[in-house]
From TrEMBL:
Domain Polymerase nucleotidyl transferase: 25-101
Position of the signal peptide: 1-26
Keyword Signal: yes
Cofactor section: Mg(2+)
Species per Swiss-Prot/TrEMBL record: uncultured Chloroflexia bacterium
Lineage, highest ranks first: Bacteria, Bacillati, Chloroflexota, Chloroflexia, environmental samples
InterPro entries: NT_sf (IPR043519), Polymerase_NTP_transf_dom (IPR002934), Type-VII_TA_antitoxin (IPR052038)
Keyword set, alphabetical order: ATP-binding, Magnesium, Metal-binding, Nucleotide-binding, Nucleotidyltransferase, Signal, Toxin-antitoxin system, Transferase
Name of one Pfam family that matches: NTP_transf_2
Family statement drawn from the similarity comment of this UniProt entry: Belongs to the MntA antitoxin family.
CDD domains: NT_KNTase_like
Gene Ontology MF term list: ATP binding; metal ion binding; nucleotidyltransferase activity
Protein name per Swiss-Prot or TrEMBL: Polymerase nucleotidyl transferase domain-containing protein
Length: 121
């Protein structure tokens, strides 16, 4: 399957909760200085189970100025309140493990912003 087709397929599978909340999520991204927010895992693969699954995100912040830890925690809490689900929030630079990176890259889908760099497979 081509990369474009795979991305389109994942977007179609992205849970309605995330799709329907894109504007509110974009506002949170702007509020907390997020340059890129992507969803991955069960929310994009069709394996999401209401009441069981959490929603996995990868975040990239515009800068690493003082207060980054607070922005990270506030964003995670705000996403959980908005989506009314548990949220796992990974920071892009922490994806150093090649196996984890490969798994994440296979299902990641942009929610807001743009990635500054292409992640290695």
């Amino acid at each position: 399957m081509s990369l474009l087709r795979a991305s389109f397929y994942r977007q179609m599978l992205m849970i309605a909760l995330v799709l329907n909340s894109r504007d509110a999520i974009a506002a949170l991204c702007q509020r907390y200085g997020v340059s890129s927010l992507e969803v991955f895992g069960s929310a994009t693969t069709g394996a999401f189970r209401e009441g069981e699954s959490d929603i996995d995100f990868i975040v990239e912040f515009e800068d690493s100025s003082p207060g980054l830890a607070n922005r990270y925690l506030d964003l995670a809490e705000s996403l959980e309140c908005l989506l009314e689900h548990r949220v796992d929030l990974l920071v892009e630079p922490t994806l150093a493990n090649p196996y984890l990176r490969h798994t994440v890259n296979a299902s990641r889908e942009q929610v807001c912003g743009h990635r500054r760099r292409q992640a290695a497979a």
